[in-house]
Amino acid sequence: ILCLASVAAALEFKYHHTEELEKYLKGVHAAYPSLTHLHSIGRSVEGRDLWVLVLGRFPTHHKIGIPEFKYVANMHGDETVGREILLHLIDFLVTSYGRDPVITRLLNNTRIHIMPTMNPDGFEATKVPDCYYTRGRYNRNGQDLNRNFPDAFEKNSASIQPETQAVMDWIKNETFVLSANLHGGALVASYTFDNGNPVTGSLKGYSKSPDDDVFIHLAKTYSSNHASMYKGTACDNRQTFPEGITNGYSWYQLEGGMQDYNYVWGQCFEITLELSCCKYPPADQLEKFWRDNKVALVEYIKQVHLGVKGQVTDKNGNPIPNAIVEAKGRPHVCPYRTNEQGEYFLLLLPGTYVINATVPGFKSMLKTVEIPDNTGNFSALKQDFSFSEVSDQIRSRVVSCPKTPLYEELVRASAAVKPTLHVLVLMTIMLVIFK
């Protein structure tokens, strides 16, 4: 056991290529089999595994009430800092479990998925490290993976790549609540939307989601706990980021991005973390990058316990999947639904909210909740819904939100109405999608 632990702990501050990365992840899993689960969610164009290490008290499967969290790095193959600091995060979490009470409680109450590289082909193709652009940014087919997802605002004509499809399937098969993808080339926490139109405020240079306040909080949580991101100093003299955060669209418009896809179709709040001015810095700087990000990485994970969670059940206590559960006044263009266990998770800041649970064909249930800040307790407020008139023979049919540009429909619908009616239009479109 000591030998296995020493193998897992022998993590140097250097760049780990494919074979070394796989060896390290397998060593960690061998040393901590009850705390970790290692699996590949798919393969790259060149056939490299897309490894994910899952950490938690129940690493092999979802447990009711325990939220799912993920970190993804190296989506652009030449942006390398995130790839390495996620390996050091793994090392820190497994060696702290049972010793550090905060990390122990975090892992006991959270299922954490870590993908060190989404684009292993691009990383291996970057033969000469560079602070700026290299061809390794793209996958083997020359595609930018962060322009490759379905887009909620305009039709994305890019052919879905194997790496993208693997992540989409992964999102579909898990109940992810919160996520971040790690990039390089700037120092800022960027939040959704990356794309936009007049419905979301693009004419004013800002694309606002229904949960804009939560996204701002998430971005500030990371930047304020980072060694210097919160200062907002840019990598050059041309641009600054107040408090170290930015709305994605305000920074630059991006079609087919992963964070918007997570939010619209995955019911998962994701932000983009730009961690280094230099995309591929010298290896002797990696230890400092780890120190700069260590606290922020952990504090951000804790935010998965914001808000409210619960189950929707029938009169016999059986879970009702595909029930719509949303906070009043925060309708999502693709309504948020319960999973197969009838669970829902809504990230909300502390305050008073009305939660609306709807089972098609039955009267909606409304419950007013007072949400505290429970991140320190590692558990969101619990609020269940029981539909006494629903029997276990009745189930909501499986509903998949179409991969069409959903916000295009809102633009058409709102063309003849005043801006003050946008919320009403959004609710109408939701009903059309549901039907």
Automatic annotation (TrEMBL):
Record carries keyword 4Fe-4S: no
Segments forming domain Peptidase M14: 14-304
Gene3D superfamilies: Carboxypeptidase-like, regulatory domain, Zn peptidases
PROSITE patterns: CARBOXYPEPT_ZN_1 (PS00132), PEPTIDASE_M14 (PS52035)
Source domain of life: Eukaryota
Coiled coil feature spans: none
Keywords per UniProt: Carboxypeptidase, Glycoprotein, Hydrolase, Protease
Pfam families tied to this protein: CarboxypepD_reg (PF13620), Peptidase_M14 (PF00246)
GO cellular component: extracellular space
Positions annotated as active site in the UniProt record: E274 (proton donor/acceptor)
GO annotation terms (biological process): peptide metabolic process; protein processing
Endpoints of the signal sequence: none
Membrane-spanning ranges: none
MF terms in GO: metallocarboxypeptidase activity; zinc ion binding
Keyword Hydrolase: yes
Family: Belongs to the peptidase M14 family.
PANTHER family on file: CARBOXYPEPTIDASE M (PTHR11532:SF84), PROTEASE M14 CARBOXYPEPTIDASE (PTHR11532)
Protein name: CBPM Carboxypeptidase
Recorded name of the encoding gene: Cpm
